[in-house]
Amino acid sequence: MAHSHSGAHALRTSMGLDSRKMAFWAFIGSECLLFGSLISTYLVYKGRSLVGPYPHEILNIPFTSFSTFDLLMSSLAMVLALAAVQRGDMKQGKLWLLVTALLGLVFLGGQFWEFSHFVREGLGLTTNLFGSTFYVLTGTHGAHVTVGVIWLLTLWVQALRGKLGPGQAITVEITGLYWHFVDVVWIVIFTVVYLIQ
Amino acid sequence: MSGQAHATTGTYLRVAAILVMVTLIEVGVFYVPAFHTVLVPVLLVLSAFKFTLVVMFYMHLKFDSRFFALLFGGPLLLALAVMVSLLFIFYGALRLRTGV
Q1: Which residues of B touch A166 (CB under 8 A)?
Q2: What are A12's strand-pairing partners?
Q3: Into how many domains does chain A fold?
Q4: What is the pLDDT of residue A8?
Q5: Chain B residues with CB inside 8 Å of A32's CB?
Q6: Residues 76..95 of A with a Cβ closer than 8 Å to B: which?
Q7: Beta carbons of B12 and A28 less than 8 Å apart
Q8: Closest Cα in chain B, distance from residue A124 (Å)
Q9: What global pTM score does this model have?
Q10: Which residue, A169, A180, A158, is CA-closest to A87?
Q11: Does A41 map to a domain?
């Protein structure tokens, strides 16, 4: 396997594929099972709460639609960041990495506001089955977004210090895979939890 | 570098526009009473379409090795199978218990 400190030469498997990317796809596969189990739990207990608040009383569709739009735009910013880094345009690369992280922060701010509002309305983690499954599912997703934002900001700081260039594009690509996965999980959550009540 | 050709910036922007439009349609379908009888299948199809667009174009599975698609698609299908099985088991057990 070829290996250089700068990462300019990818680590190749016997299949000719980048081993880091392969490992990351396997990780994303395992994440599918994690979120699959959480979504299953939500669906199995759907409509089984004995006391309120119930989903139709508390979920705010216009607000969550904005959060969905925000996350979709962050995915666009992420691919634009990767494209810029791959062509060596680090000025654009830094800008889009920062935009992606900021859009992630906006999403997290929205989730914090939503959770606070729900708690004020009387929906806690142990209030009913809806509260338990809702907070665990969306909270796990929020934790993933938080990790993604920290990862993106770390890359942005590396780029500011001149330590990120076209030779490290694979690092940005793997960050992007994680970020887009977080986005597709939200696409499913938005439909299953918010729109199908 | 991945060594694989990716989509162009124009493609990324078109995909983003489609994703936003489909999201607007989803929200529209949710609010229109005429769609309520077919709400669940319509929303699931639209959601699957958005999911596929992001995975194929933004995660580059359309352009990357099929092995990556296998690494992702295998567990995804397993997760879907677990989800469907659990729903059948749970609601089957519930139906037996309640006799409905």
Answers
A1: 1
A2: A18
A3: 1
A4: 44
A5: 72, 75-76, 78-79
A6: 76, 78-80, 82-83, 86
A7: no
A8: 25
A9: 0.91
A10: A169
A11: no
Closest residue of chain A to B88, computed from CA coordinates:
A44
Phi, psi of A122, rounded to the nearest 5 degrees: 100, 10
pLDDT by residue (tens digit) across A21-76? 999 999 999 999 999 999 999 999 988 888 889 888 999 999 999 999 999 999 99
User: Which residue blocks in B1-100 are alpha helix, DSSP H?
Assistant: 9-31, 39-53, 66-98
**CATH number where A112 lies:** 1.20.120.80
- Asked whether residue A28 is domain-assigned, the answer is no
Q: Give A10's DSSP letter.
A: P
Is-cis flag, bond preceding A53, omega within 30? yes
Burial of A96 (0-12, 13-18, 19+ CB in 10 A): buried
* Cβ-based contacts of B100 with chain A (< 8 Å): none
Residues B75-98: pLDDT tens digits?
A: 999 999 999 999 888 877 777 777
Predicted pLDDT of residue B30: 93
Length of chain A, please? 197
What residues are paired with A18 via a beta bridge? A12
Q: In which residue are the tokens 């250089």 written?
A: A4
Higher pLDDT, A18 or A107: A107
Residue A91 lies in a domain: yes
Given B39, B51, B68, which is nearest A188 (Cβ)?
B51
Q: Which two tokens stand for residue A56?
A: 């139709």
In a domain, A167, yes or no: yes
**What SS3 state is found at A127?**
coil
In angstroms, how far is CA B8 from the centroid of its own chain? 23
Interface check A160 vs B, CB under 8 A: no
A69: nearest CA partner in chain B: B20
**Nearest one of A170, A179, A57 to B6, comparing CA atoms:** A170
